[in-house]
Amino acid sequence: MSIQSYCIALNGSSRPHGNTKALLNKISKTLGEPYVSGMPIVDLCTLNITPYDYEGRNQKDDFIPLMERCIGEYSTIVIATPIYWYTVSAYVKIFLDRITDLMTIRRDLKKALEGTKISVIANFAGRNADVIKMVEGHINDLFSHLCDYLKMQYIGSYFIHMSVEQVDEKALRPLFS
Ligand SMILES: Cc1cc2nc3c(=O)[nH]c(=O)nc-3n(C[C@H](O)[C@H](O)[C@H](O)COP(=O)(O)O)c2cc1C
What we know:
Elements: E1 7-11, H1 19-31, H2 35-38, E2 41-43, H3 63-73, E3 76-82, H4 90-98, H5 101-104, H6 107-113, E4 117-124, H7 129-150, E5 153-161, H8 169-172
Parallel strand pairs: 1-2, 1-3, 3-4, 4-5
Protein name: NADPH-dependent FMN reductase
Organism: Holospora curviuscula
Pfam family, one: FMN_red
């Protein structure tokens, strides 16, 4: 019998086997079961999810099926992103923009999304602590506002330098609850 976690992780990296995936694997190993075998990691770069279109011409791409999967089965969506140019990756931004589709063409899914939790896991390469603090503040603000607007729950973020070996289990556990 398979065990399932309450979380689904969306890997926003531009490569499926890069540092962000390595971080997610490290986190699930640290948290143990049910995360190791029960938390799906979806590599956004392997899906066909195109930027928001005002005319809804991309309704048949992979976005709606991904949302149906997230909403139906999981209470927490973990957004894992590399920091690219001081913010979330383009894959994450496109994913967020496409949530607009739920306010227009799939309102049923928008309603079902309410109450779902979001957390953010980010990794970066820079060494300037002030810059990282600024980026962290910006990303936390972005998700707080977004979750308020969508009636979702933002439960926080975890930022870590790509070279750090050990992750902080105590800080991470609430973000995967
Ligand atoms: C396009 C691009 C932009 C980046 N911009 C930043 C940045 O602004 N700040 C930073 O600390 N690291 C930056 N990095 C480094 C990445 O955040 C870091 O290498 C990360 O671990 C990459 O994860 P990935 O292998 O999953 O892509 C950038 C990397 C790329 C490819």
